[in-house]
Design brief:
- This protein is an alpha/beta fold.
- It has two domains: 237 residues, Type I PLP-dependent aspartate aminotransferase-like (Major domain) (Aspartate Aminotransferase, domain 2, 3-Layer(aba) Sandwich); 127 residues, Alpha-Beta Complex (Aspartate Aminotransferase, domain 1), CATH 3.90.1150.
- It contains 15 helices and 15 strands.
- The protein has a seven-stranded mixed beta sheet with strand order 4-10-9-8-7-5-6, with helices on both faces. The protein has a four-stranded antiparallel beta sheet with strand order 11-12-15-14. A two-stranded parallel ribbon has the order 1-13.
- It is found in: Cytoplasm.
- Homodimer.
Length: 406
């Protein structure tokens, strides 16, 4: 690369990803094949429209590429229809609203502080400003969804759309129960599986197919693809979904991203990916158990998937200083609100972690007690402002990761 500054930053980021325990639940490593496809010459091509119905010429290789990604998505998830053009998860969710509702309609989703997503009707999002949002929560005592409350709220408010899924949900999503409530309330059930798509593809989490009429997902996170998104649906909603994506919200798709998605979907169909998905969950459960032994409080008491949400209130420190201390210690996480948090969102009580990237590196249950011990030491160091202790942990992390190359 001739741009030395950009080349330098790429090199530094490569080293950082190599030498860090990457434990942000929404991050992962893509394969070399996905990386090469995403950086391919398909980035040079404009392709407004859909295969066979484009507004630009020169599509004889783009069309079969997008068709390949679509067919792989349909086969992997067992759906009638797939749209692989959304630029990312939030635009994909916006397309759902455009396809299924009108401004001012009532929509329902999990509240952001309870583990939901901004685009599920939270007030600071466009989805909360353009629609009438109602939000459900989790129980204080155990951090689980109270389906009696969800049902009562849905029957009282009669939402046009009912979202299930979110960004900080450590437990299995009960899609059949949500479907029953949506049907009774006359709502369209939309499952946002952005975090768990790879687990679903690998058989490590139940699928919403057959329960949710529309499914939204990103293509990175546990699915290990590029930064993109997909909308999956039954045949009844296919036309509305496609029209909402283009021309409703977007222009031409990012063909280089489509190439990376096609590769990732092909990889997710392999038997080895099924092993990976189950190992992600096994690692998360082992890490949760080890964290409990270290005296951490976990929202809902543990995890069923790839994600763990820690409540640091009992440690006498907020999530933000702990996340920063862990980062110095070579452990990448993100601070996060916890249900019924009394602290501000930019300085919350929680920490969100996950095991997708660690598992891709090859770590197993055997290493999780060590990870939990490092995290406990880092919290102690943060309480004492002991940077030397954090630097020592970072050295130990680098030493461990030498045995697990990217």
């Amino acid at each position: 690369m001739h741009d030395q500054r950009v080349a330098e930053l790429i090199g530094l980021e490569t080293e950082r990803q190599r030498d860090t325990l990457r434990m942000i639940a929404s991050e992962n490593y893509v394969s070399r094949d996905v990386l090469e496809a995403t950086g391919s010459v398909f980035t040079n091509k404009y392709s407004e429209g859909y295969p066979g119905k484009r507004y630009y010429e020169g599509q004889r290789f783009v069309d079969p590429l997008e068709e390949l990604a679509i067919e792989r998505a349909k086969a992997l998830f067992g759906v009638d229809h797939a749209n692989v053009q959304p630029y990312s998860g939030s635009p994909a969710n916006l397309a759902v609203y455009l396809a299924l509702a009108k401004p001012g309609d009532t929509v329902m989703g999990m509240a952001l502080p309870m583990g939901g997503h901004l685009t599920h009707g939270w007030p600071v999002s466009a989805t909360g400003a353009w629609f009438r949002p109602v939000q459900y929560s989790v129980r204080r005592e155990d951090g689980r969804i109270d389906f009696d409350e969800v049902r009562d709220l849905a029957l009282r408010e009669r939402p046009k759309i009912l979202f299930c899924g979110g960004t900080a949900i450590p437990r299995t999503i009960d899609f059949p129960r949500f479907a029953e409530i949506a049907h009774e309330a006359g709502a369209v059930l939309v499952a946002d599986i952005a975090h768990i798509a790879g687990l679903i593809a690998g058989g490590a989490h139940p699928s919403p197919v057959g329960h949710a009429e529309v499914i939204s997902t990103t293509t990175h996170k546990t699915l290990r693809g590029p930064r993109g998104a997909m909308l999956l649906c039954d045949e009844r909603h296919a036309k509305a979904v496609d029209k909402a994506v283009f021309p409703g919200l977007q222009g031409g798709p990012h063909n280089h991203t489509t190439a990376g998605i096609a590769v990732a979907l092909g990889e997710a169909a392999q038997p080895s990916f099924r092993d990976y998905a189950h190992q992600v969950v096994a690692n998360a459960k082992a890490l949760a158990a080890a964290l409990l032994e270290q005296g951490f409080d976990l929202v809902s008491g543990g995890t069923d998937n790839h994600l763990i949400l820690l409540d640091l209130t009992g440690k006498g420190i907020g999530g933000k200083p702990v996340a920063k201390a862990l980062d110095r210690a070579g452990i990448e996480t993100n601070y996060n609100t916890v249900p019924y948090d009394t602290r501000k969102p930019f300085d919350p009580s929680g920490l969100r972690i996950g095991t997708p990237a660690l598992t891709t590196r090859g770590l197993t249950e055997a290493q999780m007690p060590q990870v939990a011990a490092w995290m406990s030491r880092a919290v102690d160091a943060a309480l004492k402002s002991d940077d030397a202790a954090l630097d020592a942990i970072a050295g130990e992390v680098r030493e461990l990761l030498r045995a697990y190359p990217v």
